[in-house]
Amino acid sequence: MLRHDLKRMASTLAAAALLWSAADTASAVGADAGITISNTASVVYSVNAVVQPAAVSNAADFVVDRLVDLTVTAIPVTYVAVTPATDGAFLFSVANTSNATLGFNLSAANNATDPFGGTDNFDPTTLTAVVDAGVLGTYEPGVDVATTADTIAEDGTFGVWVVAAIPGGQGNLDIAAVTLTATAREPGVGGAALTEEANPENPLVMETVFGDGAGDTDAAQDAAFSDSGAYQVSSADVTITKTETLISDPINGVAPNARHIPGAIVEYVVTVSNNALSALSATTLTISDVLPGDVAFEPDTYGVGFGIDLDGVPQSNAADADQGSAAAGTVTVTVPSLAPGASAIITFRVSVN
User: Fold this and answer.
1) Are 174 and 167 in contact (CB under 8 A)?
2) For 249, phi and psi rounded to 5 degrees?
3) pLDDT tens, 290-303?
4) By the 8 A CB rule, do 178 and 229 touch?
5) Which residue among 105, 156, 233, 320 is least crowded, i.e. fewest CB within 10 A of its CB?
6) CA 141, CA 79: separation in Å to the nearest integer?
């Protein structure tokens, strides 16, 4: 339904490098969860100067508990540029800094706060969080489809794309902020949610402790972490205006004496502009003007068969090689491209019936 226009990110390679850097620096804490640490003490002594056999204590055993910790980091440090009516993809890294292998559920949500300091003013149509499974740092729609990470070893880091469907017609420089939340769970497909055990502790059983910090939108010690990014629309900002000028009437002659009576000639001027602040050119423009039934198109204003003017150049009424045509009460003009700051001016006349 929506076109994918995502490999235009200039920061792709940098994002990949940052993701690997995050993987290198993420570090789980201490001993592996689930291992048994066993310890004994011994005493060596003498009786009447005779060394006796060492006495060894019983073993004091305990199982290392599972300390759940994770981080989520937005990789781009500024907006990801998107085009209206396409999908945009923002890359995050998720690091398992626990002392155990875990699975992770992923969720993406709109955020009213722009992490880059701008103003969030629209929401994408849909948001999806998927694991970066193919070429690192390049969103691949047919490859990056998994919505969970089922088995991530301690110290493991993986990339996640938040894919946003950008509405068509969204204005240039509009901003949509989004947040990725990763929630740790038991490893494996469909792993269960994690819970902390009630007191008192059982030293012979691996128990679970939440040790994560607070993210952008989640609390500390909740087995989750979140971070935010934002998309900014790069588009053309096209406007269209129309004016009318009374030229003459059959009774009073030319303006200023003329009136809008039957038989009067009226000139229409249609101006199509691309704002100078637009990020992109507008292309393949088609301007249509369906005339009301009480007026008739004047076909020969600029010469026989030439009733339309485009930027000072007469256009024929026929649907031929030039950019204008008029048929069945509709004036149509095509413009291949309008660069930022450019305009196209269309002029034609009608008579009042």
Assistant:
1) no
2) -140, 160
3) 999 999 999 999 99
4) yes
5) 320
6) 21
Give the 3-state secondary structure of residue 213. coil
DSSP single-letter state for residue 299: T
Cα–Cα distances (Å) from 278 to 114, 120, 233, in that order, read 21, 18, 10
Can you give 72-110 as a three-state secondary structure string? EEECCCCCEEECCCEEEEEEEEEEECCCCCEEEEEEEEE
Element (H, E) at 15: helix 12-25
Whether the pLDDT of residue 16 is over 80: the answer is no
Q: What's the CA gap between 266 and 289, in Å, rounded?
A: 15
pLDDT category at 169 given cuts 50, 70, 90 is confident
Q: Which residue has the tokens 């440090």?
A: 77
Q: Are 160 and 180 in contact (CB under 8 A)?
A: yes
Decide: helix, strand or coil at residue 296: strand
Q: What is the pLDDT of residues 20-29, one digit of tens each?
A: 444 444 455 6
What is the SS3 assignment for 21? helix
The answer to whether 273 and 289 are in contact (CB under 8 A) is no
User: What residues have CB less than 8 Å from 155, skipping those under 6 apart?
Assistant: 26, 27, 28, 95, 96, 97
Residue 198 has which token pair?
């009630």
CB of 100 closer than 8 Å to CB of 77:
no
For 310, residues 6+ apart whose C-beta sits below 8 A from its C-beta are 323, 324, 333, 335, 344, 345, 346
CA distance 106 to 94: 10
